[in-house]
Structure formats: C-alpha cells, structure tokens
Design a protein that fits this description.
19% of the residues lie in helices and 31% in strands. By secondary structure, the chain is of the alpha+beta class. The protein is globular and about 55 Å long.
Amino acid sequence: QAPEYRRAYLAEGDRRATLEQAFNRTFPGLSVKEVAISDLGRIEDDVQMRFLLEVPDYARRDGDGLRFTPFGAGLRYAEAFASLSTRKQDLVIGDPSETRFTYRYKLPPGWAVTELPEPAAGDGEAAAFEVRYRQEPPAGPEGGALVAEGHVTFKAGRVPAAGYRAFHDLLGQLDRA
C-alpha cells in the first residue's frame, strides 16, 4: 500500500485534511491534531505515519466505566474484501501486502483499563492476522497507555473460489478481533 500512501500524503499542506477524510467514516467528527510522515521520497523505506486525533463521543457508558473500540466502527475487512457468502469465480484482491499497526491510547489521569480483549490470530491460504492488546505500566514511559497492535497480511493477489469461504471466515475473525 506504500504507493497509495505516498500519492495521498505527498502534499505536505494537505496531509491533515487527507487524514481527516480517511478516518471520518471510522471516527465521525474527528479532528487531526498532529500528523508526521516519513520521507516519502525514499521509496526503498517503509512508509511510517504518526498522528494524533481528537475524537468526540469516542466511548460509550458501560456500567461505572466506558467502553470503546480501538479501531473505530468504520469499514470492516469482510465487508471490504469478502462481502459475499460464496463465489463461483476467483476473487482478485490486489497485490500481496502486509500492514503492521500500533495504536496508543493515552487515558485520562486516574483512569485504568479494567478489561482487555483476548489476543486473536488467524492464518489461512490467502491471508493472516494477529491483534494484541496491553496496558503499559503507569510508571513507564507511556504512562499507562492502552496499546493495540498487530498485523494484517494478504499473501496472494487472488483468492480461488474454492478457498473463498475460508477467506471470508478469516476476515470475519479479524473484524471481531
């Protein structure tokens, strides 16, 4: 996906607006406070992005606490790549790719995580994923931040019709993670 990121974020003055547009469906009403991107001219290097978002109404009440989904409520993998329950023809999903991600959430002072989702992973013929959650120690450098990290790998550009159902199910597992 590096070429798409390079094209989308090449114009330094448009980066905030581009990022807001990219995340608006996932986090409605957000505003971008900071965005930093690695040197996009160095095509031999991975594209790396760091950003800080402000998201209103991010969490919902759950008893005495708040509950939120770290990755928002936008487009899901199964919806984007495998929306049908079966296929008669092979599915072309694009070039093989791997996306690695780390999201850090700074909690308000005095707040703590009371429940984390279980780690999840899946591996199939066409794709693989892993998602893990943890809370940094309060005295650590990130001051108790909630960390969600993992990877999504598309191993091939084509999913054979015979393997489509397994691919569909794997992406459903990823969405639930």
